[in-house]
Amino acid sequence: MTAHTTLPAERFEADRPRLRAVAHRMLGSLSEADDAVQETWLRASRADVGDVANLSGWLTTVAGRVCLNMLRSRGRRPETPLDAETAGAAGFAAVPAESGDPEEEALLADSVGMALLVVLETLAPAERLAFVLHDLFSVPFDDIAPLIERTPAATRQLTGRARRRVRGGGAPAVDRARQREVVDAFLAATRGGDFEALLALLHPDVVLTADRFVIPTPGPVSVSGARPVAEGAMAATGRARFTGPALLDGAVGLVMAPHGRLRLVLVFTFDEGRITAVDVVADRERLAGIEVAVLDAPAADVTGLDD
């Protein structure tokens, strides 16, 4: 009779940062990711790993299965709507409360890419798992297929479909690099509270509009002039940490997505390097009609996995 080989705790701890990264990309939420990693340890500690040749790869697939179950369970729960009671001023909705360190959550979301987390939220659980494990962590299709009960060929097709969603469709011929420069500067000035830098980015006659789901008012709100718009943005400095650049219908804009859940977008109009209009959208019907895509293709993290 073969002895049961357990996984040493220190061996699991060596993979914990990687498993946490997998879970965060799968779930979008740092607190849920930590729960998933803990469940992965509970499962792994009870398993016989004597015949496992690649422990890092095996742990990644265990974490993937845990996250897949959590995503499917989440899909059966109603989502809390963004309403007037949870909305904030100046075009940035309030950040929903969640356990954990919000600063760490924001930094991690920045490192992953807010747009990527938003697009991943639009994928079905199996699509999300296939894309995250294969394209971001280089897990072979043969290892992913059993998790989603598909053949390797079907898993490859599923991943390709998710990849096209992440990259977006055909974008109009615009000066995207210049747009990115202005939007990045807008976000940096807002996060840093640099009023003068923000003013320099805004056209004197800039107009900001926000729908009624952004600000607790009966109807849409419109603010005109560089100084009033900049003052409103300064009021949202704290919330801007959960905001990042994305492609919105092919043009560079901003998405606000605390814990990976899209709350609103900022759609910009540009003229000669300055912002002439900002449309802040939180209406779910309008958000559903905007194609969100990733500006920069995500790179794979292959640490600890074989090809």
Give a description of the structure:
- Residues about 80-95 and about 300-305 have low confidence and may be disordered.
- It contains twelve helices and seven strands.
- About 50% of the residues lie in helices and about 15% in strands.
- Helix 7 crosses helix 8 (about 150-165) and helix 9 (about 175-190) runs antiparallel to helix 10 (about 195-200).
- Strands 2-1-6-5-4-3-7 form a seven-stranded mixed beta sheet, sandwiched between helices.
- It is elongated and about 75 Å long.
- The protein has about 300 residues and is of the alpha+beta class.
Task: State the main characteristics.
seven-stranded mixed beta sheet, 12 helices, alpha+beta, single chain, 307 residues
What is the secondary structure topology, with strand pairs?
Layout: H1 9-27, H2 30-46, H3 55-75, H4 102-112, H5 114-122, H6 125-136, H7 141-148, H8 152-167, H9 176-192, H10 195-201, E1 202-210, E2 221-224, H11 226-234, E3 243-248, E4 251-256, E5 264-271, E6 274-281, H12 284-288, E7 292-293
Parallel strand pairs: 1-6
Antiparallel strand pairs: 1-2, 3-4, 3-7, 4-5, 5-6
| Helix/strand order | HHHHHHHHHHEEHEEEEHE
Mean pLDDT: 83
Euclidean distance between termini CA atoms: 33 Å
How many strand elements?
A: 7
What characterizes the major β-sheet?
7 strands, mixed
Category by helix and strand content: alpha+beta
Strand content: 5-15%
Measured as a percent range, the helix fraction is 40-55%
- Poorly predicted ranges: 78-93, 302-307
Question: Strands across the major sheet, in which order?
Answer: 2-1-6-5-4-3-7
Q: What sort of overall outline do the alpha carbons produce when their principal axes are compared?
A: elongated
Radius of gyration: 21 Å
Oligomerization state: single chain
Number of helices: 12
